[in-house]
Amino acid sequence: MDNEAFFDQFADIEKKIERLIEISKSLQVANLELHHKIKQLEEELHLKNVSEERHAEEKAFIRSRIDNLLAKLEGVTRP
Length: 79
Prior knowledge:
Elements: H1 3-77
């Protein structure tokens, strides 16, 4: 193998390695963006769960108050 062919192959290998480095960096950026998106979605899910729990507690409280009022009304309307 002559020197020119050797240097051509070496240049091809360098280009391929540079391309792999570019792809790796691109994938690292995409991975970081996905991790941020996961964190954001986890926070949104947590807030939704907290909101649903609060809503369920308020609903139970309202139901309890209505049941108490109905019981009082039944006591008043019974002869």
